[in-house]
Amino acid sequence: MSGIQAAPAPWKLKGRNWIFVLSGISKNASFPAGFADPNEAEALASGGEFVGGQGMIQIVSYTESPVGTLLTFDIKSDDELIYLPGRWKYADGTVAFRITRIYVSSKESTENGRRNWNIPKHVANFNIHTAENGTTSVTVSHPNASSPFFEATIKAIPILSRISVPVNLRILGEYTALMQPPLQSGELPEEVATKQWAGLNPGMKGSARLVTITPGLNGKVGDGVGFPAIAPWSIGVAMDPLDLDFYEPSLYDSR
């Protein structure tokens, strides 16, 4: 037993994020090394048919969350690093993204994210620092590790980054839907197992602007073990402020 307090769906979160697109993986290609935790790789690659398409990396820094580090009496924060290799198609014709690798900064987020939506969260140490000139450095490392498995620098684009536009992903309909397979338990108490598939279409809205990313590990963002050794498209989107809704999931015995 972890002793962690349950935080059932729905969740309302606030913060900022950065989203970077990845070149598509062929549906017949192998997933990159580090695409999932070794204990979960088989489950996260199975079920449905991988159809590829563009993947994504997302970095999120929450200022308000139902779980995470307590900032004040009732406000908590949390950080996330997310990898989505592409989309899967299922027997009923639906197509959805799948998160296969995700790190968060708290045990509370780990257990509740797994239990609520089958999101395969694991705890990591985050260092997200934004300098006065707007440059943001991001490093993520395993607890007690001496070097990061993820490193990147995010910068504003002269003139272009001054322009921000309101964005609501609801306009994309079901394109942003997630379908997550059931999880096995991990080595730590908060890495709980689940039994059913979970489907969800998160709500996301905020003020978006263009930014650039520079990988920090030999031209890649990851080390190929804790996170894929990949290089996203150089231009991405930053959303600040960000409002995110994680609704109650739809549960399925099989997909």
TrEMBL record:
Q: Please indicate which superkingdom the organism of origin belongs to.
A: Eukaryota
Q: What is this protein identified as?
A: Acetoacetate decarboxylase
Q: Which organism is it from?
A: Hypsizygus marmoreus (White beech mushroom)
